[in-house]
């Protein structure tokens, strides 16, 4: 079968052409009705060609019923325009053009959740990336910026709350009993930032006084029943507003800032101007129903959307290839914000861990693409780990190169220079370079080259000359369509530790005097050599501090050196990485050894782990991270021809062995941290809970009466979801866990977000009947194939997070995934395409599984009517 013949031609970055028409203003009227909503759009357009050769006026539109078109007041007939499947095309217009278009859409029937759709009784829009064209005919591209007004008309009983972008202007009642509200957004914006929400919603509010003394009303809207859980999000919004003023001098620019939570949403949230819409998972949090991680995620996501107000909305993207311009930057900013809340070291380790587990895998697989992609079939497939998280790492490297002040200068220049514009990644980097007098030409390659670069470091100590040399070689593996790579500009943060773990003053041989004990070395060549002078004894290198670049680093370190770094380095990332690297090697060794009886765990390692459990350990949150074994995906990524079932078993067996070896210290640490204090969400307490529950999770591998009692006691007595879910998860795979699982399901059956946690516990279960139970739960009254959170918690969780059962040798996991991809594709292509990513790892599987996956991919690809979203993912995977 030809892989590409039935795909539409890809959109290419280099084909960019400025818009032929700009839009001066858009006035929208929505007559809202879940079954049939009428949209009247008045768009004022201005042709852009100066050479007199006007182009046809092409307006994007998908799945719209066109009721009427008027051009400069004249009603057009079908002979006056061309109506295609994805556009309405009018003859070239020479001057200012007023277009009135009336379309009808069916929100209730829209299960793709893009455009105008219904979630419960609420109507709302999702326009990024290309949803606006599912509402009306319009030049739906981010470089067309316009001023919008929006009039919403609806039944007052059903839709008492009517919201849109900007500030509320006017309202009234029609003779037929419907009410209306008008909103006006004074800031020009692209169509992807348009939004409306209509429904029976309650709200909580607070006000925020900006640095310049303006009062902003901050409101969170949600279903009435959810409002008591929205206080944390409201606080997060105010914290983010203050943070952006303090760090970057960026103030909010409207009189109201509105956040809305909805239950059916394809992603985490959306930064529509002045009207951020959230998946309720990222807006609701209280101690009883949300874990510490949920609270932290609310902080991060609320801040992320808020930060877009400047980096994304005031300065937007010229085209969708520049997505990372706003997304990488917003992630970088939310990571920094979260670091300030929970401790920068712990936050950094968590972010790096996520990047390495997910983005590195993406970069090594069939969907690998640069931070700024060169082409796409479906832009909705490019909201990826690479664009978001690697994009953030690229921004972070600029911070590492220029320091806090230099970075701030660059960001200020970028924002002031491009305010009100649609910019490019080049322009962002140019502002950074200019503000710092730097040349970032080579640095730009980070935006264009896919793949995870590798640094091979060779250290040489010369005792006679008292020099220490680091030879650093950089390389980058080939990725689809990029066989050869150019060297990158890489910041490498280093320190050298003496045998007692103290930092050595650093002087490179060509320098006169040492400067500091921590340096950022810059790599630009394929091979770079750095020689440090006056090094009295062989040091222990502390490299890539803070994970200063998104690379894989390979360096020969002895076990003793790793243990020293884990115990004494003052860089939290290096501490974590040293132990993580050690454990990774150990687990890979055990996997490679096959059936041979594994060598016992080295006492130096178990001692290092035991030290993390002691009261002297200064940061329990970091200790909790260091205690965790490397994840399945990390190990998988380091191997070829993997038997995933055996790999999962190596992980399980090693956990059990560690639990046995550290039994007393684990019990003791759990006892000490289980202090009975009432639940408060803050960095200190959540860190203690993380370590306590890390201990619990190891202990659950053992079948002692003491452990059983401990698990049940914690489940029953918990006054918060963090502890309760930790106990439930630990019990789920045990013979004595069934009662508790049932109790949890009963207790939370009215609360879908909590029940999602329960679905996921089942989906991840090691039990042999895990898949059968997942299938059964798909009939649960709360499960719904139209809700992305439910599908994510059960089906996607099984396929991505249960390697043991997903990769079952009989192929049942793969068959299940295929069946669900095809079923969901007809409901919601974005969700189906996400699920289809579960096959991306096939090239690293053993030959027999590889063959099964390839056959499965072919079946999916050959299915009638597959969406372009899913077909792009499956097509790339099966090449
Ligand atoms: N810009 C949003 C992400 C987002 C993208 C596409 C969506 O449509 C389904 C929704 C949200 C963000 O970064 O938060
Ligand atoms: Zn974003």
UniProtKB/TrEMBL annotation:
Residues 233-446 form the Peptidase M1 membrane alanine aminopeptidase domain. Its cofactor is Zn(2+). The keyword Magnesium does not apply. GO terms for molecular function: alanyl aminopeptidase activity; metallopeptidase activity; zinc ion binding. Residues 110-193 form the Aminopeptidase N-like N-terminal domain. CDD domains: M1_APN (cd09600). The keyword Ion transport does not apply. Residues 560-876 form the Peptidase M1 alanyl aminopeptidase C-terminal domain. Keywords: Aminopeptidase, Hydrolase, Metal-binding, Metalloprotease, Protease, Zinc. Residues 451-554 form the Peptidase M1 alanyl aminopeptidase Ig-like fold domain. It catalyses: Release of an N-terminal amino acid, Xaa-|-Yaa- from a peptide, amide or arylamide. Xaa is preferably Ala, but may be most amino acids including Pro (slow action). When a terminal hydrophobic residue is followed by a prolyl residue, the two may be released as an intact Xaa-Pro dipeptide. One of its GO terms (biological process) is proteolysis. InterPro entries: Aminopeptidase_N-like_N, Aminopeptidase_N-like_N_sf, PepN_Ig-like_sf, Peptidase_M1, Peptidase_M1_dom, Peptidase_M1_pepN, Peptidase_M1_pepN_C, Peptidase_M1_pepN_C_sf. Its EC number is 3.4.11.2. It is an enzyme of class 3 (hydrolase). PANTHER family: PUROMYCIN-SENSITIVE AMINOPEPTIDASE. Belongs to the peptidase M1 family. Aminopeptidase N is involved in the degradation of intracellular peptides generated by protein breakdown during normal growth as well as in response to nutrient starvation. NCBIfam families: pepN_proteo (TIGR02414). This is Aminopeptidase N.
